[in-house]
Amino acid sequence: MGNEPSTAPVRARNRRGEGARLREDIVAAAVELLDEAGTETAVTLRSVARRVGIAAPSIYRHFPDQPAIMLAVVRQAFEQMEARLRTAVDAADDDPRQRLTALCHAYLAYSREHPERYRTMFGGVWVPALQDTTVTPEEMGTLGQELLQLFVEALEACVATGASSSDDAFADTVALWLGLHGLAHQRAVTVAFPWPEGIADRLIVTLAHLKAE
Description:
Structural class: mainly alpha
Order of helices and strands: HHHHHHHHH
Radius of gyration: 20 Å
Largest sheet: none
Mean pLDDT: 87
Helix content: 55-70%
Number of helices: 9
Distance between the termini: 53 Å
Shape: elongated
């Protein structure tokens, strides 16, 4: 980045047993670079090392390559989003319909508040060439599974109480997620479109097959 100093700040050496702290600092630096630049290309071994204040080879003790750093960044983002969604559901009342709605609105809120991370998670900003990295297809395939399960369980609860007429909770959950993702993406890239009031609720009701109250 043009505004970064040409030399890395001096970092105090970790005491014995503090290697985990350096790993956390590397991930935190990568997140900062991603948020600032909006693209994973800003996250390089050299830029991360400079931000942390270490020599680039020191990163190899914790991450074998740049995609491994990005995998840790994306995993952390999914964990943060999942925690955000669980908090929203817990704050809703016991009505399954309200809990599903709270879940969906929390998802959309996270996408608005952390657009760079969201695009890296879902928008195709980060697609590593798996033949050139230590990141495995299995690791990529598990990303977001726990998050999706939250939606599945929320929709299943609506079906169980008669609030939804869905006859395939998993398929309809995927459809609901696709709808939410489409709305999140278009809100981010469409500057002047006059979004109708309540468009998110219309989408949720339709794709989750929620019955009229």
